Amino acid sequence: MRFPVLVAVLLAVIGGTAGRQSYSGYKLYSVEQNSQQQVDFLRELQQSAQDLDFWQLDRLVGSEARVLVPPAQLDYFRQLLKAQKLRHRELIHDFERVQDDHLYGTKRVTPSQGLPLNKYLRYNEMVDYINKLAKKYSSFVTVAEIGKSYEGRPIPAVTIQSPSLYKSRPNSSQPVVFVDAGIHAREWAAPAMAMYLISELVENAAQHQDLLAGLTWTIVPIANPDGYEYSHERERLWRKTRRPAGRNCVGVDGNRNYDFHWAEVGASNQPCSDTYHGEQSFSEPETRAIRDELLRLKGRCKFYLSLHTYGQYLLYPWGWTSELPEDWQKVDAVARAGARAIEEATGSTYTVGSSTNVLYAAAGGSDDYAYAVADVPISMTMELPGGGSQGFNPPPTRIEELVKETFVGVRAMALEVARNYS
Fold first, then answer.
1. What pLDDT sits at residue 172?
2. Are residues 176 and 302 in contact, defined by beta-carbon separation less than 8 angstroms?
3. Under DSSP, is residue 357 helix (H, G, I), strand (E, B) or coil?
4. Residue 363, pLDDT score
5. φ and ψ at 176, to 5 degrees?
6. Distance (Å, rounded) from C-alpha 310 to C-alpha 50?
7. For the CA atoms of 98, 102, 108, 114, what is the dihedral angle to 10 degrees?
8. Residue 388 confidence (pLDDT)
9. Residue 15 has what pLDDT?
């Protein structure tokens, strides 16, 4: 009996809608960064002002930051913008109003006829869907539990191999593409993309033989199930895991918890912070699960891709320093193949570069660990598009558009890897 899960479920039932975090009066601003001085100022503000939630912030002059401001900080924030002569505009007048109906919809979908693309699936719906795929397509699809979350939810990994190859060589050592999503709970579009990737590779396998003939795929569609469910039930913008941390705080930022230059830069040592790195590296069962799978695949895994939102970036090591790996050009070439494919197909543009040089330094990330410790030659993070005036993630009506666009890029990158590492 998984007692923590039962408690969480009972609390959700008892609390219901009334137990949700209110975002009434919260406003989302777009702030222009038109000089290096303004870029530096906003980065310092992000680090010092815990009440300001920066949804998007990079180091590129000419880009726009996205900042969610609570009512109590509105006057202070506007004064800062005025003093720094930062041009800005209001994107969302009241964040609470854009959440409930189209993101918190209570209608349940039973994915019996393909993957639903008109809602963000809950954890149980994802698990049900992938288990049905594994049963229906047992000749080339398997689902394994690679660990359990703090609250006891299994963390599933879906492995997909070419049907003909799986039948003749079920333990083939062909190159592996490892994809994970959802380590940051509020980034709902990332698991949606991982689920679509699974669906395409399995239910439309005939159309993607070039992706299956030379590659084995291992996909973890929901790496932080506790946080993900909590972001649906209680606090829409919850980011971390759900293990108690410190005296009165909960959760660790899973993408600051990996044991490579852990806690050096770009992470907080304050347990209540959204970027808290944990009391030690790999303190979280969720990050240990990904670590163990990466190490199990060491030598075979040639492409690690972690799906996040948002910002339309393809980012690669390093995240702890502005220096680049010796063979960074190889990773850059794969990332640019993905960005180019997306732009040619849809016109959407992705920014490509190292995490530190495009965004900011943040040590303890999964892509750095995969590259440096698990010896994955092509390792990167993909930041999918956001929802703009619709909130943190695109509304359900745009899920299909988003995942299909993203698939174009993932497909192009995987083929580039297959050509060079098969």
1. 57
2. yes
3. helix
4. 97
5. -110, 135
6. 20
7. -130
8. 75
9. 37
The residue annotated as part of the active site, out of 383, 400, 401, 416, is 383
CA distance 73 to 77: 6
What is the CA 3 to chain-centroid distance, rounded? Answer: 28
Rounded Cα distance, 402 and 410, in Å: 12
Whole-angstrom distance, CA of residue 406 vs CA of residue 138: 27
Tokens (6 digits) for 169: 């060589």
DSSP class per residue in 273-298 = STTB--SSTT-SHHHHHHHHHHHHTT
Task: Identify whether the C-beta of residue 67 lies closer than 8 Å to the C-beta of residue 88.
Answer: no
- Closest to 324 in 3D by CA, of 365, 372, 364: 372
Beta bridge mates, 28: 68, 92
User: What pLDDT score does 103 carry?
Assistant: 57
Low-confidence residues in the chain, pLDDT < 50: 1-17, 105-106, 108-112, 168
Q: DSSP letter at 48?
A: H
Return the structure tokens found at 312.
């339309």
One-letter amino acid for residue 307 of the chain:
L
Provide the 3-class DSSP secondary structure of residue 89. Answer: strand
Measured CA to CA, the distance from residue 217 to residue 196 in angstroms comes to 13
Is residue 338 within 8 A of residue 381, CB to CB? The reply is no
Q: Is 405 tagged catalytic?
A: no
* Residues contacting residue 145 through CB under 8 Å, at least 6 positions apart: 154, 155, 156, 157
Question: Alpha-carbon distance 276 to 269, whole Å?
Answer: 6
Phi, psi of 389 (to 5 degrees): -75, -5
Say if CB 81 and CB 30 are below 8 A apart.
no
- pLDDT at residue 422, rounded to an integer: 75
Predicted TM-score (pTM) of this structure? 0.91
Instruction: Output the pLDDT for position 387.
Output: 83
pLDDT digits (tens, 9 = 90+) for 128-153: 999 999 999 999 999 999 999 999 99
Backbone torsions φ then ψ of 229, nearest 5 degrees: -65, -40
CA-nearest of 301, 74, 104 to 186 is 104
CA distance 188 to 202: 22
